[in-house]
Amino acid sequence: MAYYNVENLFDTEDNPNKIDEDFTPGGKYEWDQKKYDRKLFQIAKAIKSIGPNGPDLLGLGEVENAKVIEDLLKQEQLKDRNYKFVHYESPDMRGIDVAFVYDSKLFKLADDEAYEIYFKQEPDYTSRKVLHVEGKLKNQKLHVLVNHWPSRRGGQEESEFRRLAVAEEVKAVIDKVYAADEDAHVIIMGDMNDDPFNKSIVETLGAVGEMGELAENGLFNPMKELHNADNYGSLTYRGKWNLFDQIIMSEDLLDESGKLRYVEGSAKVHNVELLQVGFGRGAKYPRRAIFRGKFEGEGYSDHFPVYVKLKMN
Length: 313
Prior knowledge:
This protein is α+β, with helices and mostly antiparallel strands. It has one domain: 4-Layer Sandwich (Deoxyribonuclease I, Chain A). It is 18% helix and 28% strand. It is built from four helices and 19 strands. It has helices at 33-48, 66-73, 156-180, 199-205, and strands at residues 2-9, 57-63, 83-87, 97-103, 107-115, 130-137, 140-148, 186-191, 207-208, 219-220, 235-237, 240-242, 245-250, 260-262, 268-269, 290-291, 294-295, 306-307, 310-312. Strands 5-6-7-8-13-10-9 form a seven-stranded mixed sheet. A six-stranded mixed sheet has the order 3-4-2-1-18-15, with helices on one face. It has a two-stranded antiparallel sheet with strand order 11-12. Strand 11 (235-237) and strand 12 form a beta hairpin. Helix 1 (33-48) packs across helix 2 and helix 3 (156-180) runs parallel beside helix 4 (199-205). It is globular, with a radius of gyration of 18 Å. The mean pLDDT is 95.
């Protein structure tokens, strides 16, 4: 199971309801079919490299619409998988959404819903919806919430209230799931724009990094112990690493006697050489498709994917 912020996966068409003009043939990046096709190819290659044949379940961030997901899944590297997806349009002004991709032979979709987030201080502010998917993974019921929380634009402290608001909504959804089924298995994945030790994760969600700290129906964040600002994360900012991309899970998935469980120690940032810059001071950084305002055909995204392994008993 993985999550990947694919950084601005836009088609070439101008949508008058979105701020997507940069990603059009006449826009800033001269975004034509050739560049779009190359971006699709590179992202598909990155996804395929996660595990022996790509992940069975995958959350995506920064996809423009259903069309780009369809085009992505038609790529040579992915077309032989039995991938289907769930996607809702979000009111985000940039026009970027989240999506959930799944192997339809392994995961049987039962229900899906998207939650709109409102900010009391900013009634006109738009945010990505939180996607909630319910289904069965090899006959074991599983809930997955796919997220892309508001950015840190304006500063971490100044923008934190927005991420806290989304975290509160996610926590409310989880509480609702548990009220209906106290033995529910829940995964929260996404680009949180906060690190595993930030207030939104630790206090609002109540996600802990040590199994021994888990409360009943609590949340475990295996990413917390991985983050190191000097050398380990899923993206960089001003020479420091952040681990905004996280996969958090319910206590039930740690039960060794359960039918479906987390493989201890399997949480990783997929920072393989293929996806790295490979040279210079930023050799270990993610290799972006757009760098310094220009398209880089060998690039992928400004984020590395993250993943965990689940095991069926």
